[in-house]
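Example A, followed by Example B.
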Amino acid sequence: MYAELWHASKCVLERGIENEKGSSWQFLSSIVLTAFAFEAYLNHVGKSLIACWESVEPLPPPKKFNLICELLKVDFHGEAGKRPVQTLTQLQDFRNLMAHGKTEQIEPQPFLCDAKHADARLGQRPLANWERLIRTKDFAERARVDVEEVLKTVHAARPKPKESLFSFGVGSGSAVVVENDGRNTMRK
């Protein structure tokens, strides 16, 4: 699941970068998918580390992340105000805001400007913090870079055997030809 969400996050981000029209919604989607991929990875790893993961799974992602890091002896605590952990916090806040969206009243900040620029400034509507994050590709890209860095660190600390990071599932199948009333048929 996490690999699919990770791939979807990249695809949506690339479409937003390629086509500026409507790109804010692509960036929003990429950020949310990145947050979902992060949480799905935590659930993937947690289940392999903790036999009773079903009882831990309802915890919020930051608590699951801290628990997994503690079990794997991975330390990000000294980096709370710095990247990549700072980005994880912003990403989780963004995800929660989107998942539990509420109407927000935004009060415009007073400003001083030259009279010849007043019309342009008066035409700008105030933006919520989340709206500022989706205006450009910057936060969506940063979220992917920082989440990837964190996941690589956590993944490296996992015990073997383990799959490659971001690998899609692997499957196999077979068929056997059997005689059935004189006709060749296949059975899976």
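Example B, a separate protein, is given below in the same form.
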Amino acid sequence: MSAGVLEEAIKKAAIAWISVGDGPAYALWCMPAEASLVVVSGPGEQFAPGLAEADRATVRLRGDHGGLIVQTDATVTRLTPGTDEWTEIAPQLAGKRLNAAGSADEVAARWAADGCALVRLTPAADTAVGAAGLPAESQAAPTRDTPARVETRRPFRLHRVRKPR
């Protein structure tokens, strides 16, 4: 696979499917930064179990048509609040955060205070698999059990509804 496809997929990425180890892949919003992706997770942000503590993760990126075009292993680096890298990247990522309460600097300060993890995912180009090497069958996982799932009630009807003849 050419490095150009990987670079272009990273530049256009807004969402990436990221998995750590043998765990399930989670759809996480991200921001391209140079030749890598930056993701925030933690209290009040998106759920990415194990990503902040991981050394490596698997990243799947979609193309313009919405289908999977690249899968690669990536090195995970956690950014530390107060460093030059944090000061440069956190406000940029906070500016792209939808429905954030406050300015980009306030959101970045909240991330630092709440202990949110800001991680950089740097793809290993030699592990990238392009469209030709990806499986043809769907990689959709069965739905996971969640307490948020509720049984749907029948709609309330005040009067009897007559069936058409």
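On Example B: Helices lie at 3-12, 84-96, 104-114.
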